[in-house]
């Protein structure tokens, strides 16, 4: 149904924006790279015959009207921002596939009862401010001005970055959608894992999204001379941090479902001949069961405090962000299952270990996701890859899923 070559060419073209010497993509929110990506995608939206606009938090939207313009909108999309040195498929595949779906509908003269909007959400990843899903929070009406104080590594807050991008932080409430105005949200995304690859399937239907906790650990010791301080009397926070990080891995492994990751670390003052005074590192902890995740988190905190006492250093833990696990709606799952059957694909269901914008919209509307096979399960890396054929398969499933949702009552 969809134009496979057009979708692929746009993916490759968009993948040049923010490209690093390593081949990876860095497109952080409210940067010139993100703006260039938005302008490129806006041009695709216009080519597809959509009415294009941005809302008060910078979400880029393209609208195809329905026979009943007052009917609840079917929302479909993803995000354009990336992690540092990430891949070209995570996010853009969902946005560009959604544009392709609507362009194909317009070319075929398809009219639906419900309006359909493509959305490219602002800052899903949270890479710049360590606080993500700004756009979907704004649309859900759960983003507050108080949350815009989070800063990047240069001390620039979300609010300041928004102002520099031409947005007014005091107006974020205008991005909120009223309950009942959105019939459903559907997102096509790469799996970022190996389940579909192991099953030898191009697409899968997501049953639910794991909930996460982000935390910041600070370990404080005493900075002293590296050569003149005997080992037995040192208060080295980096050694304690290393022990805590190993413990995090042990605790996460115990459940069989929990995953824990330390992705950021800073050592102060950072001299080669100085025992550190302070170490800060992040924790990303996830599980499909909130109770299991929270029990693991509590165990990690308790054992971290014990390690701190044993090594005579101070350990503090700041809970930065929390998202509960979310189940995908039967409405969207059933539409996707029927789409797979119509196209001759196996109906295969699986959970998402990664978080996505849909978790923020669950109180606004039914949500669902379709996964596309990831080569070797690699994501958030320059090696991230999904084949042209698999991307087209996912986009075709998305086409029929959106069609069913937008045609019905």
Automatic annotation (TrEMBL):
The keyword Repeat does not apply. GO terms for molecular function: hydrolase activity, acting on carbon-nitrogen (but not peptide) bonds, in linear amidines; metal ion binding; N-carbamoyl-L-amino-acid hydrolase activity. CDD domains: M20_bAS. Residues 208-308 form the Peptidase M20 dimerisation domain. The keyword Zinc applies. InterPro entries: Amidase_Cbmase, Bact_exopeptidase_dim_dom, Peptidase_M20, Peptidase_M20_dimer. Binds 2 Zn(2+) ions per subunit. Pfam families: M20_dimer (PF07687), Peptidase_M20 (PF01546). It comes from the Bacteria. Zn(2+) 1 binds at residues 79, 90, 189. Zn(2+) 2 binds at residues 90, 125, 380. Keywords: Hydrolase, Metal-binding, Zinc. Its cofactor is Zn(2+). PANTHER family: ALLANTOATE AMIDOHYDROLASE (PTHR32494:SF5), ALLANTOATE DEIMINASE-RELATED (PTHR32494). Belongs to the peptidase M20 family. This is N-carbamoyl-L-amino acid hydrolase. It comes from Parageobacillus toebii.
